[in-house]
Amino acid sequence: MPEPQEDRGPVGPRPDAPRGAWRLVRGSVLLGLAWLLFGVVLTGLTLFALLTFRIGVRAYLHHIARFCARMVLLVAGVEVRVVNPERLAGRRTRLVAFNHASQLDLFVCGSFLPPYGTPMVKRELLWVPFLGLAFLAFKVVIVDRSDLGRAKRSLAGAARRLREERATVFIAPEGTRSRDGRLGPFKMGLFHLAAEAHAPIIPVVLRGARECQPMGTIIPHPGVVEVELLPEILTDDFGPHNLGEKRDELRALYLRVLGEREGRRSRH
């Protein structure tokens, strides 16, 4: 298991970022501009995908995701620093796990989406303006967690797409954003999907995203988010008998790399 790497510079809000009333005014204007640009661009691209009957959308989705995500982050003043990007190079079947503590996570992950990459999103997000229709138009992997039967069918469909498309699926093992910034319990969906698709897992550690935009806030702070790609985990030995153990091992790795302990807040 990898040790936490040496300090690569501060993450989170910039010390010289605007504060007080000026931050609210500046942030509101920039946020409005970002969402306006995002909405116009995404709506246009979504209509194009639908009018062309979604033919080939998976082949160019990563270009669209990178452009839209980087545009929003640029306007918000958030810099993304990727460590070990070569571990996500090329197109192949794999799962990318990431710790989820901020609304920025979707844009941060979208900014380095690889070819044939897609997030796994919960069905409830289909009702979000702009995003919901775009998720359908670009064939994003959607999981229905309303009951156990639908969840299993969603995972089976995702595993089939992983194998057939040689796709990369981004998934948050916690299932939802952390409310206090600490790493939450890991759900079993990632591990069932890994076992069924025989896909390796690349753990991705996000630092600074929550500090730039904590849970419940609307305006992000300009700053730096670090994305560290850890060595991939092979899943050839994943099976019904040990998935709980594999889940606990991965969560222990995240706790150690993040510098957290059970019951304590992260030091990052």
Please give the alpha-carbon distance between the first and last residues: 20 Å
What is the domain total for the residues?
1
Helix content: 40-55%
Strand count: 8
The number of helical segments is 8
Shape summary: globular
Can you tell me the CATH class? Alpha Beta
Mean pLDDT: 88
* CATH topology value: Glycerol-3-phosphate (1)-acyltransferase
SS content category:
alpha/beta
Tell me the fraction of residues in β-strands, as a range: 5-15%
Our Rg estimate from Cα atoms comes to: 18 Å
Largest sheet: 8 strands, mixed
What is the chain-wise order of helices and strands? Answer: EHHEEHEHEHEHEHEH
CATH superfamily: Glycerol-3-phosphate (1)-acyltransferase
What do these coordinates show?
By secondary structure, the chain is an alpha/beta fold. It has one domain: Glycerol-3-phosphate (1)-acyltransferase. The chain is 42% helix and 15% strand. The protein contains 8 helices and 8 strands. Strand 4, helix 4 and strand 5 form a beta-alpha-beta unit. Helix 1 runs antiparallel to helix 2, helix 1 runs parallel beside helix 4 and helix 5 (148-165) crosses helix 6 (189-197). The longest helix is centred in the N-terminal third of the chain and has 32 residues, at 20-51. The two termini are 20 Å apart. Mean pLDDT is 88; it is low at 1-5 and 264-268.
Secondary-structure topology with pairs:
Elements: E1 12-13, H1 20-51, H2 57-76, E2 78-83, E3 94-98, H3 105-110, E4 117-122, H4 131-137, E5 141-143, H5 148-165, E6 168-171, H6 189-197, E7 201-207, H7 209-212, E8 223-229, H8 243-258
Parallel strand pairs: 2-8, 3-6, 3-7, 4-5, 4-6
Antiparallel strand pairs: 1-8, 7-8
Helix pairs in contact: 1-2, 1-4, 5-6
